[in-house]
Amino acid sequence: MELYSKKTRWKVFLAILGILIIAASLFFTSQLVNEFAKNERDNVKLWARTVHRKARLVRYTDILFKQLRASEKQKVELLADVYKRLLRSNNSQDLNFYLKILNQNDNIPVVVVSPAEKIVFSRNLLPGEDTTRQFRGKIKESFSIYPPIVIPVVGQKTYYRNSLFYNQLQSVLDDLVTTFMSEVTANSASVPVIITDSTKTHILQYGNLNDVKMRNPVYAASTLKEMKSQNPPIEINFSDLGRVYIFYKSSDLLTKMKWFPLIQILIVGFFLIIAYLLFSASRRSEQNQVWVGMAKETAHQIGTPLSSILAWAELMKMDKNNVDQASIEITKDVKRLEIITERFSKIGSTPNLDEDNLTRIIYETIDYLKPRTPSKVSYLLNFPKEKEIILPVNASLFSWVLENLCKNSIDAMSGKGTITIDLHEENKQAIVDVTDTGKGISLSEQKSIFNPGYTSKKRGWGLGLTLAKRIIQEYHKGKIFIKNTSSKGTTFRIVLKKDS
Q1: What proportions of the chain, in percent to the nearest 5, are helix, strand and coil?
Q2: What is the mean pLDDT of residues 149-156?
Q3: 3-state secondary structure of 151
Q4: Is 397 within a domain?
Q5: Segment of 146-155, 367-376, 381-390 carrying the highest mean pLDDT
Q6: Which phi and psi (to 5°) does residue 463 adopt?
Q7: How many other C-beta atoms are found inside a 10 Å radius of the C-beta of residue 373?
Q8: What average pLDDT score do residues 143-155 get?
Q9: Rounded Cα–Cα distance for residues 283 and 270 (Å)
Q10: Residue 376 maps to which CATH number?
Q11: CA 198, CA 242: separation in Å to the nearest integer?
Q12: CB 85 within 8 A of CB 98
């Protein structure tokens, strides 16, 4: 009952620990997401301020151009008025003054056209245009941007157009507007951006958005609606484009980061559930193998002396003269049953370790095994029977380990060969080597040979070496392992401490 209560407490403890770990993970990830969101918002604000400054520069440049255009128009009107006065004046001083004013115009292209559309005066024309006398074709088209100024006295008209300097500046302004739009849509803050016209519905440009999806009007409209709900638009005025609005929203990366903690927990939870189911199934399978193995091992252990007792009993019935011999052998088998009972009673509980002679235990175990193993199997003990190695050991359990190793060796030799046992002391340790002349153990088997239920025999139950490992490592705090193996045989080594 105590085992199950402990198991329940451990389950509760692990469940609480798991919840705490999940909560800590969610909190930590949430903090990271919030910090990332704050940094992105700061970047967006910085980007928005940059957009405002650049937009202000574009607006100021546009105002400057408007003023320049108005100034050039005023100059042309002044020139037209001067030309009109020039035609009326007879005073030589006035004529010189008016001519001086006309000659000071060194940048605005001007032509004065007669009613017959002949050019009677021109100034600042391009090479090739200054030889033209008829006001038609390309030259008339280039001077038709602005309405002419009529000179009533003679019925002439003064035409003008933007200066070369103005046209160059206009080209710079156009490039500035184009560059501004491109920089807004391809911003360094990686913010999804949509630029609309004054209606806030017609999309002029967009950036950091999926091109294929944005071709879908429904998706584009929903994205624009989402941006309107997240942030107020940035309003900008252009002379050519009029009023435009810049809409933006949080990046896709930030959106994904917000969902990351939940997805992370779901994936980890799914993995833990799968792992729990697999380990539970593996544990149940291992437990079943252990129970089956223990049952078969119990039957096997009891079967040998029990069969012997039955045989001696039958012999006693047939021949009364063998009673004494039968009594001695039956007594041995009963003692063997007692040893078996002791062994199984100590599995699962911590056995007592008594100071005992390891040499005696090994010799007695081999003496018992010899008559019960195939005749073609021989035993070689490379240490004298009189040698004493005293250490804390449970004799019945250690004898069981030695029996299991010898049975494993007999199977590896297919019932024919030599089992050699060496015993020596080293650094306050007793070392026992059990060597056979069998076929050896493969690398894959070496990794699994001590696992419960593992066996290479068709009719084995894979518990002998598992019990041997448990007895040596858990009960005696020693070591058991494969020292070496090859096609000529295998050596198992047992290391026991001499001091408890």
Answers
A1: 60, 15, 25
A2: 72
A3: strand
A4: yes
A5: 381-390
A6: -125, -20
A7: 17
A8: 75
A9: 20
A10: 3.30.565.10
A11: 7
A12: yes
98 Cβ neighbours under 8 A, 6+ residues apart: 82, 83, 85, 86, 89
- pLDDT tens digit sequence for 409-452: 998 898 899 999 999 998 889 999 999 999 888 887 887 787 76
**Residue 196: pLDDT above 80?**
yes
Angle at 130 between CA 126 and CA 132, to 5 degrees: 125
Residue 135: inside a domain, yes or no? no
The residues facing 183 across adjacent strands are: none
Residue 439 lies in a domain: yes
Give how many domains the chain has, as a whole number.
1
- For range 276-293, the mean pLDDT: 64
Count Cα neighbours of 46 within 13 Å in the Cβ-side half-sphere.
10
- 323 lies in a domain? no
CA atoms within 13 A on the CB side of 361: 22
More confident: 186 or 222: 222
Other CB atoms within 10 Å distance of the CB of residue 84: 20
Give the least confident one: 19-33, 131-145, 179-193.
179-193
């440009």: which residue's tokens?
205
Give CA–CA dist 178/96, Å, rounded: 47
The residue that leads in pLDDT, 56 or 204, is 204
Domain span at residue 490?
349-497
Whole-Å CA distances, 294 to 33, 239, 279, 348, 489: 55, 94, 22, 12, 28
Q: Identity (one letter) of the amino acid at 58?
A: V
Report d(CA 108, CA 124) in Å as an integer.
6
First to last CA, the chain: 32
| CA 139/CA 131 separation, integer angstroms | 11
pLDDT of residue 430: 93
Chain mean position to CA 142: 65
Tens of pLDDT, residue by residue over 197-239, are: 888 888 887 877 888 888 898 999 998 998 888 888 877 776 5
Instruction: List the beta strands (DSSP E) in 398-442.
Output: 417-425, 429-435
DSSP line for 257-315:
HHHHHHHHHHHHHHHHHHHHHHHHHHHHHHHHHHHHHHHHHHHHHHHHHHHHHHHHHHH
Higher pLDDT residue, 385 or 47? Answer: 385
The pLDDT tens digits of the residues spanning 467-494 come to 888 889 888 899 999 999 988 899 999 9
User: If you write DSSP's letter for every residue of 349-383 in order, what string do you get?
Assistant: S----EEEEHHHHHHHHHHHHGGGS-TTEEEEE-S
Task: For residues 50 and 189, give the distance between their C-alpha atoms in angstroms, rounded to a whole number.
Answer: 11
The rounded percent of the chain whose pLDDT value lies above 90 is 13
Query: In this structure, what DSSP letter does residue 435 have?
Result: E
Please tell me the distance from the alpha carbon of residue 350 to that of residue 476, in angstroms, as a whole number: 10
Query: Which pLDDT does position 98 carry in this prediction?
Result: 54
